Amino acid sequence: MPPGKMRKKEPVASFCGSGGIDAVPDGVLEHILGFVPAEEAVRTCVLARRWRHLWKSATGLRIMCDARNLQQVGSRKEPWEFVDHLLRLRGHAPLEMFELRFSHFHDDDDELRLNRWLRHVMVGQVQMLRLENIGHDGFELDDLPLVSRHLTKIELVGIDLNDSFCDFSGCPSLEHLVIDTCYLLSAKKISSESLKRLSMTSCDLGREFRTLIHVPNLASLRLDSHLSRAPVFESMPSLQEAFVRVTHENAYTWDCDDYSGDCDDEDCYSCHGIIDDNNKCVFLESLSEAQNLAFLSESLTFIFERDLKHCPTFSKLKTLLLDDHWCVAPDFPALNCILKNAPVLEKLTLQLFSKGPKHKVEMIGRYHPTDRSAGISEHLKAIEVKCKLVGEEVHKVLKFLCTFDICKVSFSNRHDK
User: Of 405, 257, 237, nearest to 315 (Cα)?
Assistant: First the structure.
């Protein structure tokens, strides 16, 4: 380019006519509108004639219906009428995602209305369903199971779940289920033949019985901070990983009559779970096929203490994470038991008196080249210890590890900035 001459500016693509967003295919726009809140998606109908009906075919519906806004809109019917009108105009066009966030649904009409919306989107072949009760004020879904051959993922937050709704046998494609801060006080069983991933966080389970969970094809489990009685899992031969955190509230030791949690009747399902071939293990047995396990607890609760008396063999377990409640001096019975029943364990991590995720001190203990204890897995090369500081209790754990000839320790100090 000759000196002193400016480069000619490239023409800017127009957003009208044949250029810009008008060149985007309808299918792409419908996909984009699926990520936009429903009210905003509907408003796009005024942009141009082409947009008049695009929102009706959006691949996702994200609806917020908060009864606390009723005074602002001036009529109790208006928020509900918007959703009713939206679904009626949309018809049963296919949906990839349906998300409904709601609050302060209390009376029978609210329950009937929400369940009607839910059944409507089921006909629309929805693949992902998310229901969130923002107020966590006790809203119970319809006492009927979901039926859909298209549904692959369900997320439920802050909802009362009953026995029938937790039967997912009518959803043969369901693979991912998330239950967060829900109440399952009347749900005796959760069942799905197809489920691959299950996450249950801060859920209140049955108080007079143990919730039975039938998920034979489960590969990944997260059970975090459940309340009341620990659930009973049936056999999960495909399980690959499990994270279990038991909070102090779970230390209820309830029995069918006196709440001791360990009645004399060995056939009592509520206290002893499923008994198969004289197996009295309620919880750990169902996790014994996993390759990766994490057990965290605010105390070594009743459910773990009893199961360790009938500790299964973790024949596939390769990585294991335990916290300080599994490392109780002087005899360390829980840690000792699980190590002796994990014959192919490769990596053990002990998280001692430090919740993380950052830990100030990290240590790795290794075997002496010429010594190896016959008491634990021959595949276990090292044990990682994470803690805030190396105090008396941590010293006791390190001393115990020396009984397995794990004596060479390397330190790594991490200081928070």
Answer: 237
Write phi, then psi, for 190 (nearest 5 degrees): -115, 125
* pLDDT, position 374: 58
Non-local CB neighbours of 365 within 8 Å, separated by 6+ positions: 382, 383, 384, 385, 398, 401, 406, 407, 408, 409
- How many CB atoms lie under 10 A from the CB of residue 194? 16
- Size of the chain in residues: 417
Tokens 């590890």 -> residue? 401
**Which segments in the chain show pLDDT lower than 50?**
10-17, 70-76, 249-261, 269-270, 272-278, 416-417
Work out the number of other CB atoms within 10 angstroms of the CB of residue 379: 12
Measured in whole angstroms, the distance separating CA 19 from the mean position of its chain's CA atoms is 45
How far CA 394 is from CA of 360, 404, 405, in Å, comes to 13, 16, 17
Block residue for tokens 């602002």: 72
- Please answer whether residues 105 and 111 qualify as being in contact, where contact means their C-beta atoms are separated by less than 8 angstroms: yes
The pLDDT tens digits of the residues spanning 340-359 come to 899 999 999 999 888 777 78
Which residues in 326-336 are b (16+ Cβ under 10 Å) and which e?
A: bbbeeebebbb
Residue 159 tokens read as 């909802």
CB within 8 Å of 32: residues ≥ 6 apart: none
Helix-, strand-, coil-residue percentages of the chain, each rounded to 5: 25, 25, 50
360 closest CA partner among 406, 391, 399: 391
pLDDT of residue 218: 97
H or E element that contains 27 = helix 26-33
pLDDT of residue 256: 44
Q: Six-digit token pair at 239?
A: 């399980």
Integer angstrom CA distances of residue 312 from 77, 214, 263: 57, 19, 22
The two beta strands, 319-323 and 292-297, are: parallel
Tell me which residue of 197, 205, 193, 268 sits closest to 234, measured CA to CA: 193
Q: Which among 144, 37, 21 is positioned nearest to 82, based on CA atoms? A: 37
- Find the farthest-apart pair of alpha carbons in the chain and give their distance in angstroms, rounded: 99
- 201 by DSSP, 3-state: which? strand
